[in-house]
Design a protein that fits this description.
alpha+beta, five-stranded mixed β-sheet, single chain
Length: 171
């Protein structure tokens, strides 16, 4: 979501954070016990319409911030994105985040499902900030899996950027 795209693009405020879980033989109730009483985990699984993935909602006492725990789906891209995640040192510990390329693909997919302009804005900002760090020749629409978004959204996003060798300028 926005927390991961903030690492690669222009940070923006958000009132939630997404985490992808691979629970295996463990239950969400076991995780809830480990989090402690400050976190209220909704034991009822729900379905998120923009991502098309099952999730659990976690609320913290006396805070409007929401944590969404998404279960790793059977989608080929989701599995690849999870396998390619990388450790990033943050506040004295490693957190695991998707690659910039995977965030761009994911945001493009979400923008088509949910018709959310903030996802397209996040893609534009990630492309602008990452510039040459996005590998040349990587086809973001056909990046090792099927079901990628069409070129229409990505072409529209790229048309908003003018790449200058010395700097990146939005027009």
């Amino acid at each position: 979501g926005s927390m991961a795209s903030n690492l690669y693009g222009v940070p923006r405020s958000t009132q939630d954070a997404y985490f992808v879980l691979q629970l295996g033989n463990h239950s969400i109730l076991e995780l809830a016990k480990q989090l402690g009483p400050s976190f209220q985990v909704d034991s009822q699984q729900s379905f998120e319409t923009s991502t098309g993935i099952s999730r659990y909602i976690v609320k913290m006492a006396a805070m409007p911030f929401i944590i969404e725990l998404f279960l790793l789906s059977e989608d080929a891209h989701d599995k690849e994105r999870f396998a390619r995640r990388r450790a990033m040192p943050t506040l004295g510990r490693d957190i695991f985040v998707p690659t910039a390329e995977d965030m761009i693909i994911t945001k493009l997919r979400w923008s088509q499902r949910g018709k959310r302009s903030k996802d397209v804005d996040d893609v534009r900002n990630m492309l602008a900030v990452q510039g040459d760090h996005i590998p040349v020749g990587v086809d973001l629409d056909d990046h090792k899996t099927t079901g990628r978004p069409g070129n229409v959204v990505l072409s529209r996003v790229r048309s908003l950027l003018f790449i200058d060798p010395d700097r990146i300028v939005c027009r």
